[in-house]
Amino acid sequence: MRKKIVAGNWKMNCNLDETKTLLKEIKDKTNTLNNNTQLIVAPAFTNLLTAAEFLKETNIKVAAQNVHAEEKGAFTGEISVDMLSSVGVKTVILGHSERRKYFGETKPLLNKKVNTALRHGFEVIFCVGESLEEREKNNHFKVIEEQLDKSLFYIKKETWKKIVIAYEPVWAIGTGKTASAKQAQEMHAFIRELIAQKYDQATADGVSILYGGSVKPENSTELFAQKDVDGGLIGGAALNAESFIKIANSF
Ligand code: PGA
After folding, report:
1. What pLDDT, in 10s, does the model give residues 52-83?
2. Which atom from ligand 1 is nearest to the alpha carbon of 215?
3. How many CB atoms lie within 10 A of CB 225?
4. Helices (H), strands (E): how many in the chain?
5. Ligand 1: lining residues by beta carbon, under 6 Å
6. pTM for the complete prediction?
7. Pairing of strands 91-94, 123-128
8. Could you give the domains of the chain?
9. What is the DSSP letter of 170?
10. Whose CA is nearest to atom 6 of ligand 1?
């Protein structure tokens, strides 16, 4: 059975006090969870230690939103895998479209980051997604295949157990436009098939593939009902404990 996952990508939101409040609200509501969905929260770097300590005795994992590809050194302003490990964080989101778009993260760079993270025993939530233009030109399958091929499809078969994929069509992120359940299922099935071709069916069947892009309690049930949709990577709606837990309860 693949793991069901609902992960909250808090992006550049919530200072320390707001982080503490939101974490407490989420933690308090976990007794209303009606399934064994893995919850993950990804606050800002400055709040990771607080989050990791606060959630230590719970089943909620804490993820970083990014990490540097190098282990250490003269990279002013950057954060290393060892720094994350040392505050109790062993999960990282890589390849988010905002990182690709605003910070120029390329497929080869992401390849390096994935490699570094896996080498240090991290679980990686690897994001892929096409732009509206790419979809309108009917290039979306090719774009996703290339993103996976150039950044992820070189890893060893054994390390797939450390990978979660998040399909996030760029046109659906923060726009209120969600991919239809049919569009999500179609892409998730395509991604799983690619993994089966490159590796094998058992590996493909074991990978959780999350959908991301304007997921909210109003659409999560239909999305999560799709055969190959194993949960969601949630932005805006993850900043509200009630909607985050409602989403987790919609399997
Ligand atoms: P959104 O963001 O839910 O606000 O669209 C999702 C994401 O960027 O991970």
Report:
1. 999 999 999 999 999 999 999 999 999 999 99
2. 3
3. 12
4. 11, 8
5. 9, 168, 173-174, 212-215, 233-237
6. 0.98
7. parallel
8. 5-248 (3.20.20.70)
9. G
10. 235
